[in-house]
Write a structure and sequence with these properties.
By secondary structure, this protein is α/β, with parallel strands linked by helices. The chain has 11 helices and 16 strands. The structure holds pyridoxal-5'-phosphate.
């Protein structure tokens, strides 16, 4: 097998636009008539938020969720004016002002934040688009049932004054059990009904992330917020997902050969958990081989006949060289696939194809 392009001397995360597009198409088809909001938090699950958003928007995705405002503003530059961007973490007044300037929809989960967003919209003259969050049981963020009517009234009052538009209601599920998620949905729907009774229109309603979106159609709103599955990361111990594949592979070159082991240029400092040693297989030109040890900047892999310096070892990917997926690696050490991607340091070169 050919060595790494450009004589790479360290690990490379290779992200594949064709795979990302296919995943987005699979999710889009599955959730219709609900619409996909692709979530690109944690720098696009490690692959690169700008790249992922651009690929998705080119594939027809009209909503991108960013988590924070600075990322949403950066995404606005990457994807242009048309796509809706949604940032939901509570932010500073300066960030809110910048978000309004960049036409970023804001998730608002407290009365204090609601008031601050209204003040920023009023003083900057940029009309805010607000999605009000109801706490449905996670107790992380979101208006309580007791605060909800007041929040809706404040938002509607500002809407009548031409300062904001209350365009959505949303919440987040624990995904711990179907019964809890059902209860959360009941709270969500009750809040939406209350808001409508108070005069809100709420064209956008969203509750579900990857797993619930995929498995529980009855929980989907008009929008679904999906990150992991778009990137090909399925849930730990979750079912296989038809049409979904890991959108990136992590490769590293063979640095030297020592007896029955090859030493490759990737290690704990690059973000790979050292607990993987002895528990998983990686892909090589000769197929799957055991990962024996994880050091600071190197790993040891069981050698194969004809191994040469510069050969490419695939640490995770789609299985083309015998490697495991991010999710099966994660399962081997009791974590989730997203974590393997998000832990990769900026020193791991990103390559796009
Ligand atoms: C991370 C996140 C999502 C996407 O979750 P996935 O499981 O990766 O699809 C959706 N909504 C919120 C609020 C999130 O924080």
């Amino acid at each position: 097998m050919a060595g790494l392009t450009g004589a790479a001397t360290g690990p490379v995360l290779r992200a594949d636009a064709g795979v990302l597009r296919a995943n987005v198409a699979a999710v889009t088809a599955r959730v219709a008539p609900a619409e996909l909001m692709m979530v690109v938090k944690d720098d696009g699950y490690g692959l690169g938020a700008d790249w992922a958003a651009r690929v998705a928007v080119d594939a027809g995705v009209r909503w991108i969720g960013s988590y924070d405002i600075p990322t949403a503003i950066q995404l606005r530059a990457a994807v242009g004016a048309a796509p809706r961007l949604f940032a939901w973490v509570t932010s500073t007044d300066d960030e809110v002002a910048a978000a309004l300037h960049a036409h970023v929809d804001l998730g608002v989960g407290s009365l204090d934040y609601l008031e601050r967003v209204i003040v920023q919209a009023d003083t900057t003259g940029f009309r805010a688009r607000i999605h009000l969050k109801i706490d449905t049981g996670l107790h992380r963020n979101g208006l309580s049932a007791a605060e909800w009517d007041e929040g809706v009234r404040i938002a509607l009052d500002a809407q009548h004054r031409g300062i904001i538009d209350l365009v959505g209601a949303w919440s987040h599920l624990a995904e711990a059990s179907d019964a809890e998620d059902d209860e959360a949905q009941a709270r969500f729907l009750a809040a939406v009904a209350r808001a409508e009774k108070l005069g809100a229109e709420l064209p956008h309603r969203h509750l579900t992330a990857s797993a619930a979106t995929w498995e529980r159609p009855e929980l989907r709103g008009s929008l679904v917020r999906v990150g992991a599955f778009c990137f090909g990361v399925r849930s730990a111990d979750g079912p296989d997902l038809p049409g979904i594949a890991p959108a990136a592979e992590l490769v590293a070159p063979v640095r030297r050969i020592e007896g029955d082991e090859v030493v490759i240029a990737c290690g704990a400092f690059d973000g790979m958990p050292s607990t993987l040693a002895g528990r998983v297989q990686v892909g090589t030109p000769a197929g799957a081989r055991a990962l024996r040890a994880v050091g600071v900047d190197e790993m040891r892999v069981a050698a194969w006949d004809g191994a040469v310096v510069g050969d490419e070892v695939v640490l995770f990917g789609r299985g083309r060289s015998g490697e495991q997926t991010p999710t099966t690696l994660a399962e081997a050490i009791g974590t989730v696939g997203e974590e393997l991607l998000c832990r990769l340091t900026p020193g791991v070169r990103r390559e796009y194809r």
